[in-house]
Design goal:
Layout (H helix, E strand, L loop, with lengths): L9 E4 L2 H11 L3 E6 L4 E6 L2 E7 L21 E5 L3 H10 L6 E10 L2 E11 L5 E12 H6 L1
Parallel strand pairs: 1-4, 5-8
Antiparallel strand pairs: 2-3, 3-4, 6-7, 7-8
Length: about 150
């Protein structure tokens, strides 16, 4: 039995098998468990977790409006990755086009800057995935003089 995170996004998808192929086979997510009769899967990747459920196209409490591609507009899922360059190679080999190539970004957190390598990719339904690799911290003052 594994430990479920306090916050786990659950995403409706149009084709669970297509999504599983992308998340498991291309990105390297682990399938923790599935409920095939409900077209549901629980996945993990380096401490991140998410749930996928195939949309049944019926009214339910889970659907707050019509699903129109791209799904998840206005939201991105930030997923920590240990080797973002290898992930980029894997995506290229799978023929997946990146939304944004690897980019070094520095984000202020109080008196420090947190460095990350970021890449953006869309899943088969258009959910925006932001993979990050942490590259360290530096003082805000040191960054201003550089």
């Amino acid at each position: 039995m594994f430990q479920m995170n306090s916050l786990v996004p659950e995403m409706l998808v149009t084709d669970l098998e297509r999504s599983l192929s992308f998340y498991r086979d291309t990105l390297g997510f682990k399938v923790e468990y599935q409920r095939p009769e409900q077209l549901f899967a629980f996945l993990s990747f380096n401490g991140s977790q998410l749930m996928l459920e195939q949309d049944d196209q019926q009214e339910s409490a889970w659907r707050v409006g019509p699903l129109q591609a791209p799904f998840g507009r206005g939201m991105n899922l930030s997923i920590e990755c240990l080797d973002i360059r290898q992930l980029a190679v894997d995506l290229a080999q799978a023929g997946v086009t990146l939304r944004r190539e690897i980019e070094e970004c520095w984000y202020r957190q109080e008196g420090m800057l947190c460095g990350q390598l970021n890449l953006l990719v869309l899943d088969p339904d258009g959910y925006l995935l932001r993979f990050i690799e942490n590259i360290g911290f530096k003082a805000v003052e040191a960054a201003a003089g550089a």
